[in-house]
Amino acid sequence: RAKRARHLPYAVFEPAMHEGAVRQLRLEADLPGAVASGAIHLAYQPIVELASGRIRGFEALARWTHPVLGPVPPGEFIALAEELGLIVNLGLAVLRRACAWRAALPGGDCGIHVNVSPRQFLLDSFADDVRAVLEETGTPPGALHLEVTETTFVEDREGAARILGRLRDLGVRVHIDDFGTGHSSLGFLHRFPVDALKIDRSFVTGLGEDRASSGVVETVLALARTLGIETVAEGIETEAQRLHLLYLGGTLGQGYLFSRPLPEEAAREAWITSSARTACLIPGPGSGR
Ligand code: C2E
Ligand code: MG
Ligand code: MG
Ligand code: MG
Fold it and tell me: Please, which domain of life does this record's source organism belong to (predicted)?
């Protein structure tokens, strides 16, 4: 219904639809300019070692503050960008900016995680685009972690397998985002050999609350161990959840307990502080940055 209103603006006389339709039209009109002008910026959320809190990398998350409507949730404008055919350009801009930001950090061993939409991932030129950005920004391929959801692999199995192969040849890492919410199975992971599974926030939230969630988390951790791949638990908000994950054998995580997504400069400072702390804790050759 709302969709219809978008293409038939004269139908917005129905009062209940009015506000939503006006917002839609406005976002639709302004998103292309925001993408083209670079008005979409990035926040960076630390990904940490659960045991020590040491930062291992950051997930880049797109942010858009509309001049009139204020902050627009990424769930909303990413979906709109997909619908309007802007996601490939937007995704590439995000990738370039995130890699450039990471390249300017001291140390050289920080990971950078970038979300990739199915449409973008499945484009035949994607691996070439990634290689170009790596070269342009001087990013070591192993530092780049691309996060894709299970739907990417379901939409076009052949294409996804081909592109995954090319990315792995490049040395880039691929994570399955929101793992556990889609169609994954053992066979699926055999067919699409990825580097890590991100355990969806819904299961982390349920830890200690319902038995099903702990069961899912335990199973995913065991699965990853069997496959010899990493896991990252999303949405850790409490110390109890952190301890529960550690107890089940989890190693990496992210969430408000450690840090919210941060503006560029604050994220950079968090990285420097974390690196310095590690250097003090583990003195030895190479620790003096
Ligand atoms: P995601 O990739 O699963 O990202 C994690 C989301 O969980 C982020 O929401 C993050 O802010 C939020 N989060 C992290 N820790 C916590 C926590 O402890 N509690 C709670 N309640 N939430 C937490 P955000 O930034 O709103 O992004 C939402 C989704 O939008 C992302 O989910 C991702 O799918 C998509 N997205 C964001 N940036 C991009 C982008 O550049 N490209 C694409 N294709 N998608 C993006
Ligand atoms: Mg993600
Ligand atoms: Mg996620
Ligand atoms: Mg998620």
Answer: Bacteria
Instruction: Give the pTM.
Output: 0.91
Long-range pairs, 47-51, Cβ under 8 A, ≥24: 47/111, 47/113, 47/232, 47/252, 47/253, 47/254, 48/252, 48/253, 48/254, 48/258, 49/251, 49/252, 50/233, 50/236, 50/242, 50/245, 50/246, 50/250, 50/251, 50/252, 50/253, 51/246, 51/251
- What's the confidence (pLDDT) of residue 18? 79
Q: Which of 101, 114, 115 to mutate to test the pocket of ligand 1 (most atoms within 8 A of CB)?
A: 115
Of all protein residues, whose CA lies closest to atom 27 belonging to ligand 1? Answer: 74
For residue 16, what pLDDT is reported? Answer: 61
Residue stretches of the chain with pLDDT short of 70:
1-17, 184, 279-289
pLDDT at 284: 47
Residues with CB under 6 A from ligand 1: 45, 61-62, 73-75, 78, 91, 94, 115-117, 147, 177-178, 201, 234-237, 254-256, 261
| Model-level ipTM above the cut of 0.95 | yes
